[in-house]
User: What shape does this take?
Amino acid sequence: MDVARNPETSPARRAWWRRISAQDVAPLASLAVIALFFALTSNSFLTPATIVHVLKQGAVLAIVSSGLTFVLLTAEIDLSVGTVALWSACFCGWLFEIGFGLAAPDAAPSGGMVAAVIALPIASAVAIGILSGVLTVWSRLPSFIITLAMMNIANGLARYLTRSEALEVPHLLKTIGNGGIDLTPRIMVPYSAMLALVVLVVGHVVLVHTRFGRYVYMVGGNREAARLAGVRTGLVVAVCLAISALTASVGGLVEAGRLNAATLDQNADLLLEAVACVVLGGTSLFGGEGSMSRTAIGVLTFVVLKVGLNQVGWVNDFARQLLMGGVLMTALVVNGLLAKRGK
Assistant: This one.
């Protein structure tokens, strides 16, 4: 039979197979192996409570990692995501409890006031991201240096506002952080997970179906070629850093709601965990390669590993961090080797 005329083997039918690469398979394989291991070693792993726990813990990481993906795709880095998230939560708590005095027992905050308490911290975080982008482009210094300085500035601002005290946050954030839709008496879909899904979908649409998304990949793949093609590379980098600050802020507010307060220690490991999630998903630190779907897989892999290690009885607190680092290192190396073989 003529293969060219066979509808079952036509290019249109086989196109989606050709788009599957080792870079796509490797993160999924890592996730499957880790999930299977904990399913066999822990009786409580495959339970509705664990699934809800994974969704709640992964929601904040997914939100923050989605914005960080934009930055890494341009071959830049944003070291300030953890402290920007912290600043947003602390600023929100300060506005709610001290600035507007809405935490008093007799206070009756209106919807507009609550919206302002949430919107102002997000706007301030975006301003920090824009400033980081402008300074990175204008000074021609690595974003590593600029965002490192911003990390300390945001941390200092948060400490100045809170004075190391926990601050109340609006009830809306507590609902988003802890509430959800009950599918069954034992299974709940958290609002935070739904918000994370919306952020990931919007990020995917922007990267895949917009001109700006194509520019992001071009800047990360070959910045000089993108500049010669007429792309305003500096503007793309600045916008990506602003997007990263935006998602970091939203993630910080959701985390504060989950903890029912804004505290200085709530985002201590957020930066390292977000970077690990993005890279675990197969996004290159050298830019131009990655996607939101890969980031989502990386987040699931990281959270499943973290939750699973906490449930395994034979792993003590001292060995847990060591095992987590070893497994993450192995997964990253395997993903990298398989990705190279697929090229």
User: Anything to note?
Assistant: The chain has 14 helices and two strands.
